[in-house]
């Protein structure tokens, strides 16, 4: 006898999150409270910096291992080394083209708006002994190649050298792929380790709002809200430049790849908001890896493209380097004709790829860039130290969005995306398991 339809228990609908349970709301609230504390109680605000630093270190603690597990499992599972090489070549070409466009947009916008013109700053008066600026060491192409290979695998992980970890992971994964089915026990073990590492990340994410609170409170307390006033034009110009890049570059690329940029940004909104507070792109790498795979992108593409993008696809950072370099030239009265700016562009095409090797310090790479131009005074960087973190919030945000778009584009080129899953996930929005 058939069971009456009315007696069949219906599945309980998933409980909708209350607004205060949403991580985005919590992080934004933490940032708002941080601004208030930093402005009203600067002595307390400056003491809150460790809250943000602890969170970033928790993520940095496992990022190298997560890159290793993701890249190794993704490549070795393919067992087709020709496909791996094809993905890598396509990714590098994409990175070079888009970052070059970013540099050009950055240079054009800063020249049109000229926020630093008429400031007549004497760079000699800007040097603050308490704020030493050490340019990153310039390296030749041969030294760059040598630096790709760690002295030992352990050394790469210990120093957090993402490029070196990536090189080791790719080689190790190719070695496993060559073993065929004999490598399966190792892959199973790596997958288990990866799941344990992501558990650590889920636990760390619970303190993300506190981290954003501490980081913002320190920034406002140290530099003060008034530090925004004299450089408001640069901040406005740079944020406008980032918006132009989203509209003119990323949105058309997303349309070409068959997805909505706005829906993608909504899908990764928690990560985008988090990097605004922490200024650390590493703090969201594990979550982005998980979400991109959930969007239907094959593990082999995510595992190779996303870590490589973290080293080579610095869209926002390129916008920053171009804008700030010319701004400092304008502010100090340094002559920068189009010939000199084309030379600056050539320098930036090289130095912007060094960001990953300078442990998150765009200031150090900027100093190296200015030193290479031999025209813009290096110590003029002191002009932007007070607003660097505000500018960094925009360029790290842009970097993360650009890396997500890059992964989906390469996935499209490789026919390595489940289109139905992608459309469903973007339409419904991300839901934690």
From TrEMBL:
Keyword Ion transport part of the UniProt annotation: no
GO molecular function list: fumarate transmembrane transporter activity; malate:proton symporter activity; succinate transmembrane transporter activity
Transmembrane segments: 23-42, 54-75, 87-112, 162-179, 199-221, 228-257, 345-370, 390-411
Domain of life: Bacteria
Recorded topology in the membrane: Multi-pass membrane protein
Gene Ontology CC annotation, any one: plasma membrane
Localisation per UniProt entry: Cell membrane
Keyword line: Cell membrane, Membrane, Symport, Transmembrane, Transmembrane helix, Transport
Listed GO biological process terms: L-aspartate transmembrane transport
InterPro entries to which the protein is assigned, alphabetical: Na-dicarboxylate_symporter, Na:dicarbo_symporter_sf
Descriptive protein name: C4-dicarboxylate transporter DctA
Organism, as annotated: Stenotrophomonas tumulicola
